[in-house]
Amino acid sequence: MAFIADRLKSARIMNGLSLQGLADQLKELGQSISKQALNKYEQGESTPNSEMIGFLCEALGVRPDYFSNATLVEFGEIEFRKLSTYPGKERDRIEEVVKDKVRRYLELEQILNLQTEFKNPLEGFPINTIDDIDDAAKELRKEWDIGENPIPNTIELLEEHGIKVVEIISDVKLDAFATKINGAQPLVVLNNAKLDHNLDRKRFSAMHELGHILLKLDQHDDKTKERFCHYFAGALLFPKERIYTELGRSRSKLSFKELGMLKQEYGISMQAIMYRAKELGVINQSTFKQFYFMFNRLGYRNNEPYSYKGFEESNRFSQLLFRGLVEEAISMSKAAALNNQKLADFRKENMII
């Protein structure tokens, strides 16, 4: 099994370790090695033996296959600008964690001879005004056959239409970002440390990043792009026609109870609903300001009532993994490696005899 040198550096960065930090980790496992020797491994000047690879796997939390997986994963950089203000070490760690997950995903698809195709249904759709955004959201719902009903699972929706979704854990103040894999396939990355306890925010973040992927916004500045993608997320989660049906076309007041029930049905925050109502002329600016004044006064700005109780995950990778097992396209040990688990843990967790 070939050892790909730069995979060691990737694994080290993924764990947030310096060369000395990795040497210290190995020492705790009973394997003494200098950072200079580790650097030679990373530069390809020398190759670790099987025993050392075992220690490296233990220290870095990866399986042996990790160091031989040559699946190409390169990311675009447009949406990575969102990470530019975060500490370089954590930014690099996030990128390597995501690449590892994507690499295993792509390898599994290759083994099963699957090709995930992506087609942008809004290619060439002109976006110059807010009205264009509503029209784009309506067109997308038509193309993806969603209708006007609430979207039950935004992450599954993205994966069904050729967009990879990877979920990470990071303490940086980042909800999500989007990029492309190998210049073609779109990828949305969601930070569950910020989103898992707040599913309506997770849904909104996923749809916001979908806006960056689908909408033609190159002619706009960054601030306008963000505003349009925010509006796109709201328009997708709560279509204009449904706003008018649920709220009417003109209201002087809205109750928190009413907003809360709509939040629980459509999976969109009360604040986003009010913003949609204002932009569509259902309420005026004065009513909108009064709402936010009361929201702040009650401490609801960052902790809304009426939690959305939905399901925001995709099981596609796991389904493909067990499909590969059943069809004997992959062995049990390969399935464990693709899932980044020890074989014994994989068997136990999945109750495989």
Automatic annotation (TrEMBL):
Residues 8-67 form the HTH cro/C1-type domain. CDD domains: HTH_XRE. Signal peptide: none annotated. Coiled coil: none annotated. It comes from the Bacteria. PROSITE patterns: HTH_CROC1. SUPFAM superfamilies: lambda repressor-like DNA-binding domains. InterPro entries: Cro/C1-type_HTH, IrrE_HExxH, Lambda_DNA-bd_dom_sf, Rad_response_metalloprotease. PANTHER family: ANTITOXIN HIGA1, BLL7220 PROTEIN. Belongs to the short-chain fatty acyl-CoA assimilation regulator (ScfR) family. This is Helix-turn-helix domain-containing protein.
